[in-house]
Every structure is written in structure tokens, then in C-alpha cells.
Amino acid sequence: MQKALSPRAEVLLKALIERYISDGQPVGSRTLSKQPGLDLSPATIRNVMADLEELGFIRSPHTSAGRVPTPLGYRLFVDSLLTVRPLDSAEIYRLGDELSFDGDPKHLMESASSLLSQVTNLAGIVLVPRQEESFRQIEFLSLPGGNRVLVILVTHSGRVHNRVINVAHGYSAAELVEAANCFNERYSGRPFGDVRRSLLADLQEDGDAMQRAVKNATDMARQIFADDESSGPDVVVSGEANLLKVPDLGDVGRLRRLFETFSTKRDLLHLLDQSVHAESIQVFIGGESGYEVLDECSAVMAPYQVDGRIVGTLGVIGPTRMAYDHVISIVDVTARLLGGVLSAEVR
Amino acid sequence: MQKALSPRAEVLLKALIERYISDGQPVGSRTLSKQPGLDLSPATIRNVMADLEELGFIRSPHTSAGRVPTPLGYRLFVDSLLTVRPLDSAEIYRLGDELSFDGDPKHLMESASSLLSQVTNLAGIVLVPRQEESFRQIEFLSLPGGNRVLVILVTHSGRVHNRVINVAHGYSAAELVEAANCFNERYSGRPFGDVRRSLLADLQEDGDAMQRAVKNATDMARQIFADDESSGPDVVVSGEANLLKVPDLGDVGRLRRLFETFSTKRDLLHLLDQSVHAESIQVFIGGESGYEVLDECSAVMAPYQVDGRIVGTLGVIGPTRMAYDHVISIVDVTARLLGGVLSAEVR
DNA sequence: GTCTGGCACTCTGAATGCCTGAGTGCTAAA
DNA sequence: TTTAGCACTCAGGCATTCAGAGTGCCAGAC
Predict the structure, then answer these.
(1) A226 touching B, CB under 8 A?
(2) Which residues contact A231 (CB under 8 A, 6 or more apart)?
(3) Assigned domain for A53 exists
(4) A186 secondary structure, DSSP code
(5) What is the pLDDT of residues B27-40, one digit of tens each?
(6) Bigger pLDDT: A287 vs B205
(7) Do A212 and A248 fall within a single domain?
């Protein structure tokens, strides 16, 4: 069944999809025959289109409409037909300009996401899987009022977490510093999972066997790490409002469910988890992902790396009918830029 | 013109608006005449409705439709006709249950906002005007890598800000602690504006006149405070997706602009600033606010206080046709609850 | 003076039918 | 293998019709 497409059929499919992407209307044989480059009569084109339809690459919404690409058609298109349009230097410059690091990685993610959404006019999305993180440094700060302590946790990638915890009795500043020092010496550089397991193991040992400082730190850190597990990886979505302009997603009910998916983030994470392990740019088309909310939607995602190590992934979500040639370039460049900014700052 | 409405007209207007809020259809005289409680013939009701229309409280979308309330009508309704429906204890319990403080005020705001949106099925909104904040404590933490310092700033209300700054040369841990101590002694308890001005003044003095530690701290803090001013107050909006289910806001173009307003937050802030100074619950109806995006929308906002001082405001945004009686109670209770949680934790 | 029943009038929205334009599939000829 | 021609189908625009809902106003009842 999956016999290789004839070169002519490929050219035709490519032309059809490009036309559909730019116009949004089903494409008929007459329209295509007028396309410069392929000199064929409408009738011939109809024959080829009939083949393409039989193979599942295109379909007609109804008898007397033109053809539109199916998800399978898009798949073939982005995988082997698409000619990616590289950005001109002005655009790259503009992208780089907008991405600045102010010390807070969360802000950086937000600006990357909103940058993506502005440039593509779609929804931007940036994901940082927290599993990969490793522990760098912890500090305890006593707060006025006696038995409350502010715990500051710095991860290897430079993220900072704060948490106020309640403790049984007050600690002196010196005690807190000592506790932090011990803890840092013991765990710095180890992945979170390690630290968490270690903390649980320490719980088993009898307290007296440990130094008092370490014990204090352990008690306090346990609250933090326990919480951290549940909070999972982080996603930033922005520019959802752009999707309201897209005529393809006209159905308000569908849009609503889509927005709900964005705001719960859980399903989104699950989907994007797949792209974290990919080496290069990935395109998810239509309901391929298994989420029926995302029928009619595509996602273009690229991993970004710090010092050669993939630390997250970023991209856009939009209608299946999007300008893949342009979007892919933008996502690609943005991923490199974000990786670059992070690499420069983290070392 | 604004002669007092006859009691009967008031009763009728109230019944009409209640009916319209629950049904969403223009209300005709026949429908109202069947309403238990007011025993009037349709014809009589028509006469009264004609008066109400002349006074601008209701209007008819077209000749043979019933009447719908105008913004002015809603105004009168919420101001003097509405009987607020108090929550039953189960509902209050449920609300209180969902609001828990985990040490991060940002999380608390987010959970309050999402709580509001879930319970009302509208968009929840929580605002913390940062102007009111005062400085409590600063700490400097040296990061591995030499000349980078993590600055942690704790405000009076318990908010924590992090920022990584680059410094000219490395500092020892002891130097940093000393700097922080000096700075805290000097400024703790003073409002941000004060501190900022003071920092600028110190810049004028010649460095040698100051203790070295204070000078270090001043240099670093200046970067933080300068930034902090620009970031302005904080808004959390959630549950926007709920507005997509509202049939009244069917116009996709309008919805899009509304969502853009939410995501830029600027206009929203400007609008809500007005409610910060109000003592009690406030209802903004339709385009009253001057923002034409918010035609067809109403906001119910209540300030919340910590230890008797108003620190922010919270509420919901939804269609003008919303169940005010219920929503007002929910917003009111949530504001008290949030105030309560904050008061308990901050002291 | 106030309320009510009745009646003519208006307007929306759904249903129907008609028509045109676009596009197809098939067949036969080049 | 390609092309031209032809019959066929269908969506969408347009006008028409029709029922239902609601109004305004008037004249009579209380």
C-alpha cells in the first residue's frame, strides 16, 4: 500500500499543501493547474489527486469542494517535502534582542515563550523538566517571629526556590549557617532524586548518630524536597489569545477545551515529555498525540541545551494549518538562542 | 428625570433582571405576569416596562422581543434591589479548605484566584499592589563561580524576591553576612519608596564616609530596588477559559481582545487600582470602567486586609449577566478568608 | 384614576425552494 | 499518457414564507 509516491505526485501534494496553508480554502484542480511550475491540465491533476486521496494524504470535505491535506498528508509534507525557509539576519537579530537574562530563569522562560507567541502569532510554550535538575546549594534564613525559617534552594541550572517552613523551636543564625554548610558539603552536585532518597534513608538512622547540624538541616530540607517532587516540571504557555484569531479553530467548544488543557498543564506535560528525549526539532500533527483536544492542532517543539546537555524543550502550538516552513525556523533559532543565553550565564 | 421609582416598578425591575440573569432571554410581559408574587396582567406590566425603558433601566433588542436590563438597570439592581444570598456553611467550609498557605504568597494568590474561578465558573483575579510594601530583610548569598551573588529580599507581607546579580569582585561569606546585617538594621521596616530614595541619596555621599559593608550592600541593593520599581504590582488571573463557555460573550473578536487585556495586565491594573482604595465590595458594570473591551463584562472586587490594613483586592470578571447574588457572597467570603490566612501567617 | 382584555402591528428566526459556481469522475479522443 | 468534454453533485447565497412572541394603544371595567 505504501508504495513510493511518484515524483509528480509529490510535487503536486507539496503544491497543494502550500496552497492550502496560505489560503485556507480547499484546493481544486483548476487552481493548481494555474500554478506556475507544473504545467498540467486540470484533468490530469484530478487523476493524481484521486490517487493521493486513495492513499490517504488528502481528502475532500464534500463532493464539490477541492482537497485538503489529512494529518497523514501533513506528516509526509513536513518530513520529506518541506523546504524550510531560513530566517534572514534581521529576524534572528530581533529574536536575540528580546531574550535577556535578568537572573531569574523563570522570567527567561516567560520571555522566550512570549517571544515565540509574538513572532509566530501562535501560542508559545516552554518546558523545563525538573527531573533532570540537580541540587547545588541550600540556605536557611531565620525570619522574625521565632520559629519560622525561610529556606532557599538553588539548583544546578540556577533556579531558585523559596519556601517558608515552621520549625519546632528557634535556631540561632550561626546554627542555621552551620546546618546549611554541612548540608551543602554533603549533597551539592547530586541529582534531586538522590538527595530525596538519601534524606529518607537518614530518617531511618537514629538521630544521635548524626551531627546535630546535619540533623537540623535534614529535618528542614525534607519538607522542601517532599514538596518539590509533587510540583513536577514547569511549563509556561503564553499567547493563547492568538489562537482565538485563527479561523480554523472556530469552534468555541473546542477552543474552550483547548484552553483548559493549557491551564491544567498536565496533559500538555505528558505530551511534551516525548519531545524532551528527541535530539532535534519535532512536529506533532493533529490528533497523533492521542489527545483528541489537539485534533486540528499541531505542535512544533525543539529541545534546547546548556553545554551540550538537553535541559528543556520549547516551541509553539497552533492550528494544523500553519506556516511550517517559517515556524520551524523560528522555533529552531529560538531554541539555540535560549540555550546560548543559559550556557553563558550558568557556567 | 431621576424621580424615585414607584415600589411596584422596583419590584418589577428586580423580577425582570433576576429572570433575565437566570434565563439569558429577553423577558416579556407575559412571562413576568406568570411570576408568582406579583399578580398583574401582562398589559399592566407593559405599561410599567414602558416607563422603565424611558428611564433607561431596560431596553428591547428589537420590536417584538422582551426587555433586557441596561447597565444603568444593573447598577440600580446591585446597588439597591439585590438580596445577597449568603453562602451556606458547607460552601464556606469548602472555600476555606482550599486555601492553604505553603510559605509562598504567590502560590497563595494563585490558589485564591483559581478557587474563585472554579467556584464561580468565571475568571478569578487577585491583585497585590506592590506600592504598599515595606522592606523587611535582605540576604546575600554567594554563588559558586566567583562574582555572582544571589540577593534575597523579604518584604513585610512575607513575599520573597530573588535576583542574581553580577558583582565586580568576589566577596567572602562573612563579608556578605555583615553587609546584610548592616543593611537590615538600617532599613528594616521602612517602605520601599523610602529605601529607594535613601539609596539614591547615599550614592551622592562619598564612599569613604560609609562603612565598607554598608557600601557593598548598598551597591548590590540598588540593582534590586531599581528593578523592583519597574515591575509594578502583581496580578494573577485564572480560569479565563471559563469565559469561553459563557454564551453572552459569543463574539470571538471581542473574546480575543478580552484575553489580550488579561495577558498584558496593564489595563486591568489600571481599572482595579480604583478598587484598592474602596473599603468594601465593589461592582463594576459593563463599560462603566471606560474600557470598551469590558462592555458586556462586569467585575466584582473586594479588598482583603491583613491586620486591619488593606493589602490587595480580589474578585472575578464575567459577563454582565452573572449571578450577582451568589458571586458577591463568594467574593466577599474569599476576601475574608484570604485576609485571615495572611494575618495568621504574617504576624 | 388604575387596571385589563383585545386587537392590529412588527420583527426575528426557522424552514423552504431556487439558482449559481465550483469542482468532481468518467469517457473518449489525441 | 494526457487532455477535452460532459453530466453530476453539492454548498452557499438569496428571496420567500410562516409561525411565534411581544409590543403599543385603545376602550371598557372596577
Answers:
(1) no
(2) A130
(3) yes
(4) H
(5) 999 999 988 777 88
(6) A287
(7) no
Same domain, A149 and A213: yes
For chain A, what is the domain count? 3
Reply yes or no on whether the pLDDT at A241 is more than 80. yes
d(CA A331, CA B209): 53
Q: What is the mean pLDDT of residues B229-242?
A: 78
Of A310-324, B78-92, B145-159, which range is least confident? Answer: B145-159
What is the C-alpha to C-alpha distance for residues A151 and A173, in angstroms, rounded to an integer? Answer: 13
Q: The CATH number of the domain where B66 resides is what? A: 1.10.10.10
Cα B211 to Cα A129: distance, rounded to the nearest angstrom: 45
In this structure, what CATH number is given to the domain that contains residue B183?
Answer: 3.30.390.60
DSSP structural state of residue B231: H
Give the CA radius of gyration of chain A.
26
- Give the number of other CB atoms < 10 A from CB of residue A292: 11
Judge whether B162 lies within some domain.
yes
| pLDDT band at A323; cut points 50, 70, 90 | very high
User: Quick one: A254 and A307 in the same domain?
Assistant: yes
For residue B120, the domain's CATH number is 3.30.450.40
What stretch of H or E contains A311?
strand A309-319
In order, the DSSP letters of B60-72 are -SSTTS-BEE-HH
Residue A102 at interface with chain B, using a CB cutoff of 8 Å: yes
- Interatomic CA–C1' length for residue A30 and nucleotide C22, angstroms: 10
Which distant-in-sequence residues (6+ apart) come within 8 Å of A144 by Cβ?
Answer: B136, B137
- Does residue B2 sit within a domain? no
Give the integer Cα–Cα distance in Å for A281 and A291: 20
A14: cell is 507539496
Which protein residue's Cα is closest to nucleotide C5 at C1'?
A: B43
Provide DSSP, A200-246: HHHHHS-GGGS-HHHHHHHHHHHHHHHHHHHH--EEEEE-GGGGGG-
Residue at a domain's end among B186, B209, B231: B231
For the record, the C-alpha cell of A182 comes out as 554541612
- Using an 8 Å Cβ cutoff, are A331 and A112 in contact? no
Residue among A99, A126, A115 nearest A341 (CA): A99
Q: Is-contact B161 B153, C-beta < 8 A?
A: yes
Q: Does B238 share its domain with B342?
A: yes
Nearest to B288 by CA among B61, B19, B18, B73: B73
Same domain, yes or no: B145 and B198: yes
Nearest to A242, CA basis, from B333, B256, B334, B30: B256
Same domain, B75 and B117: no
Residue A145 has pLDDT above 70, yes or no: no
| Closest alpha carbon to B129 in B288, B287, B238, B236 | B236
Residues B334 and B245 in one domain: yes
Q: Which residue has the cell 497523514?
A: A72
Residues 34-63 of A with CB under 7 A from strand C: 42-43, 46, 49-50, 53, 60, 63
Hey, how many other C-beta atoms are within 10 angstroms of the C-beta on A252? 17
Position of cell 525556523?
A329
Task: Using alpha carbons, select from B197, B276, B275, B48 the residue that is nearest to residue B284.
Answer: B275
Distance A12 CA to C25 C1' (A): 19
Which domain, by its residues, includes B60? 7-81
* The pLDDT of residue A204: 64
> Contacts of residue A244 in chain B, CB cutoff 8 Å?
252, 255-256, 259
- Predicted confidence at residue B283, as pLDDT, reads 94
> Within a domain: residue B1?
no
Nearest to B20 by CA among B54, B57, B66, B63: B66
Element (H, E) at B21: helix B7-23
The residue out of B231, B253, B280 marking a domain boundary is B231
- CA A179 to the chain's CA centroid: 37
Set of cell numbers at residue A339: 540555550
Same domain for B117 and B42, yes or no, is: no
